[in-house]
Amino acid sequence: MKNQYFDRDKFFIILFSLLTTIYIIILCLPIASIVRYSGISSILITIQDSESLSAIKLSLETSLVSLFFTFFLGTPTAFFITLRKKLLLTRLIDLIIEIPITLPPAAAGIALLLAFGKNGILGGFFSRYNIQLTFTPTAVVLSQFFVSSIYYIQVLKTSLETVPIEIFEASYVLGCGKVETAIRVIIPMLKKSVISGLILTWIRSMGEFGATIVFAGNVMNKTTTMPLLIYTFMQTNIAKSAAFSLVLYIISFIILFLIKTWCARDD
User: Fold this and answer.
1) CATH architecture group of domain 40-108+137-266
2) Are residues 195 and 89 in contact, defined by beta-carbon separation less than 8 angstroms?
3) Over the stretch 230-246, which tens digit does the pLDDT of each residue have?
4) Record's SUPFAM superfamilies (predicted)?
5) What is the spatial distance between Cα 210 and Cα 227, in angstroms, rounded to a whole number?
């Protein structure tokens, strides 16, 4: 019997609204504090600084290169895992590529250092030819790729699992091979997921810190990305650190806003 003095639906609406409000406050309060502390004028001064411009330029360049490798290596990997998911080897590969997402970023950086460092498995080979990977922009790219590529693969895998097998079979009947089907049929069909996954990966690459500072170091004007510059400023000038943090917030907000707008328009 329904209690006439207690409306359960209304109670849960109020409860959920309250919990949502608390969550939004927790998210927005730090951002509001940064805005209040730094101010717009500090942002304009900070982004004109040569160190800031160098960090922004390096972050954009390395993250885009990392994104390039993510697309061309991650796309076939996602297709292989999805279409061969019943194989034991495929399950093992799926498990291996998910490891970086569970590792602390610093641990990922140590793993990269031991693999590609001067005395590492591959780094030792490159050092014979005087090719150094550590403490270079290449190390920044490797760090970003290692940590962020899984996000794209996961998004694409999830979308591929929703594609009916009949679409693949119809494409094969019409004379398309497996590679041609993937390129000309499936990827265009899943373009929203592909682009969303790439942008999510790009944002994660731009914010990478732990693996980068361990493997690539924090060499000013060479390997100092935006997150590393915030860390550097924090040790000497908290106001500049806050202002540059706000720049990152603004960049992330603009990117996410464009994604949401594009997805809504595409619907």
Assistant:
1) Orthogonal Bundle (1.10)
2) no
3) 999 888 888 888 888 88
4) MetI-like (SSF161098)
5) 9
